[in-house]
Amino acid sequence: MKKGLILLLVLTLVFAGLASVGNKESIVICASSEQFRNDELQKQLNERFPDKNIIVMYMSTGKAAAKVFAEGPGTEIDILVGLETGYMNKISDQLADISGLSTLPYTEGLTPADNGNRWVTWEKQAGAIIVNTEVLARYGLEAPKTYEDLLKPEYKGLVAMPDPKSSGTGYFFYKSWTNTMGTDGALEFVDKLYSNIKQFTESGSGPIKLLKQGEVAIGLALTFQAVNEINDGQPFEIIFPETGSPYSLTGTAMLNGRETDRDIVEVYQFIINEFLVYDKENFSPENVYEGQVNKIEGYPQDIVYADMSGIQLITEKERLLALWKY
């Protein structure tokens, strides 16, 4: 009887241990990058931390910030990846101090200290005017060279742009226009551009998709996406605006309280010190740290960037989006 009770106790403890492993808490990463980048992040995390239950889920940058802002410390999100820095500023009180966790030599102005030690710079998202040369040829049209060229009546229904209200890409084009034309001038420009717009897409990758389908000839889109498509054989051409390539910055952070969880900190450090390097070398190569390597074939060199003053101010973004009527 005594031996039987001891065996039963041992078996109970074993099954309790197995149940604990099977129901281990998840580490939830909310990533706002394209799905193929998120998939690679999930793959590498699974390989690096096979004993951890890590979930990478996609959420647009605006929705992710709104979720954290509304839910506070009780949110199931542990780590944010690729959130626009304007939104990072808005929710900074809900982000953990990540001092000393980053080891990369960031360029001036982009270090964790420059971000209040609340997030690590994830990427510089930069854009250009992208054209499908075959569609232009079909209509007997020349490629635009400037933003003003986009207003030509022959481009009616042949232009696509991301919606600034749902896309960070759309917003940085809009913000670039306000910086060079003034708010009133930018709104007047968009009113004229609207006549030629086929679609304001929900996501930043929307114009590239329409260009691939031949539904538009011109898209305001991300440079790295266009380069990837060119390398895959698409008849695209990249035209940098006369005022420079517009861009925005994104960041990666941990939520408050997670800095005391060793597992979450280990995963976060892998993301910001190792996967970030892989992502920049292979996916989104605009320079953010010293010695950064670009492995993407044919990526434009010596890009001139636009004046993006105020791109990280959430109050400015909210002001401009309130004026956007499309």
* Average of per-residue pLDDT values: 91
Task: Identify the CATH homologous superfamily of the largest domain.
Answer: Periplasmic binding protein-like II
- The helical percent reads 40-55%
Rg, rounded, reads 23 Å
CATH fold category name of the largest domain: D-Maltodextrin-Binding Protein, domain 2
Whole-number tally of structural domains: 2
- Give the distance, in angstroms, between the N- and C-terminal Cα atoms: 79 Å
| SS strand fraction | 15-25%
Can you summarize the main beta sheet? 9 strands, mixed
CATH architecture tag of the largest domain: 3-Layer(aba) Sandwich
In the predicted model, the low-confidence regions spanning at least 5 consecutive residues are 1-24
Structural class: alpha/beta
Tally of separate helices: 10
Helix and strand sequence: HEHEHEHEHEHEHEHEEHH
Strands, count: 9
Describe this structure in words.
With 326 residues, this protein is of the alpha/beta class. The protein has 2 domains: 26-123 and 248-282, D-Maltodextrin-Binding Protein, domain 2; 125-247 and 302-323, Periplasmic binding protein-like II (D-Maltodextrin-Binding Protein, domain 2), CATH 3.40.190.10. Helix content is 40%, strand content 17%. The chain has 10 helices and 9 strands. Strands 1, 2, 3, 4, 5, 6, 7, 8 and 9 form a 9-stranded mixed β-sheet that branches. Strand 1 (26-31), helix 2 (35-48) and strand 2 form a beta-alpha-beta unit. Helix 2 crosses helix 9 (262-282) and helix 6 runs parallel beside helix 10 (314-323). The longest helix has 26 residues, at 168-193.
